[in-house]
TrEMBL record:
<comment type="similarity">
    <text>Belongs to the FAX family.</text>
</comment>
<dbReference type="InterPro" id="IPR050931">
    <property type="entry name" value="Mito_Protein_Transport_Metaxin"/>
</dbReference>
<dbReference type="Pfam" id="PF14497">
    <property type="entry name" value="GST_C_3"/>
</dbReference>
<dbReference type="InterPro" id="IPR012336">
    <property type="entry name" value="Thioredoxin-like_fold"/>
</dbReference>
<dbReference type="InterPro" id="IPR040079">
    <property type="entry name" value="Glutathione_S-Trfase"/>
</dbReference>
<dbReference type="InterPro" id="IPR036282">
    <property type="entry name" value="Glutathione-S-Trfase_C_sf"/>
</dbReference>
<dbReference type="InterPro" id="IPR004046">
    <property type="entry name" value="GST_C"/>
</dbReference>
<dbReference type="InterPro" id="IPR026928">
    <property type="entry name" value="FAX/IsoI-like"/>
</dbReference>
<dbReference type="Pfam" id="PF17172">
    <property type="entry name" value="GST_N_4"/>
</dbReference>
<dbReference type="GO" id="GO:0005737">
    <property type="term" value="C:cytoplasm"/>
</dbReference>
<feature type="domain" description="Thioredoxin-like fold">
    <location>
        <begin position="24"/>
        <end position="127"/>
    </location>
</feature>
<feature type="domain" description="Glutathione S-transferase C-terminal">
    <location>
        <begin position="171"/>
        <end position="241"/>
    </location>
</feature>
<protein>
    <submittedName>
        <fullName>Uncharacterized protein</fullName>
    </submittedName>
</protein>
Amino acid sequence: MSPSLSVILWGVPKPTDGPSPSGFCQKLEAYLRWASVSYTHGSEPNPGKAPKGKVPFADVTLDGKTERLSDSTFIIRHLIAKGSAADPDVDAGLTAVRRADSRAWQAWLEELIYPAVVTERWVVDANWATTKQEVFGSMSWPLRVFLPWMLRRRITGLMWAQGVGRHSQAEREVIVAEFVDALEAKLSASSGPYFHGEKMSMFDITAASFIANSLGTKGNPYFAGLVLKSPTLVSFARRVNGELFPEYKNVLNLLDDAQGELQKKAV
């Protein structure tokens, strides 16, 4: 890491001892932890005010020059291209074929599975009350009243336009379960504890981040429930998040408890 590099990670407000309510903010922070990049948090409760109308975005200062960048993937690529931070896939020794494989899995997770999880959290009425209290309950009036209504309306529209919001919840559960089964099979077949073997790759960082994001809320019980029933995914999520975020006691305890229950059932 360049000694002159500093980053302000702008995202939705998050607890100091738990994951961000945004999976993409969590992904970027996990990468910064992995790469040992110095960063601080900036809070933007309304993603609509961010560049590109979404979080995360970042103020990246290198050699005294500050650039404002948007989108977790492009922020990470910028840091790697500038030689300011390491590339997990290079560090893991991935071939071009394995990098392509990772990119396909990342697209599957980010462009289909996460929207399905977000829809479960923000659009399904049974989960919305929980999400609303978790995300906005500590805000002052009138933000506590106006912002949830505005963001839910916006997210519902985005999920409809994206396509996943047009499916029924039962159909979305089929989509999510297929991914969980496939990820479990892929990790089980790996030659090491990570997706491609013995070293953490960018996909490991991404997948563990979205799992942590989902376990940090009670607003997506279906996806979280699938993860917690899988010994492979529990072990994977515990390993990566325990290494990068040892302060996430609630998430790590949840994974430890799930691991204990799964071990009892296996006896």
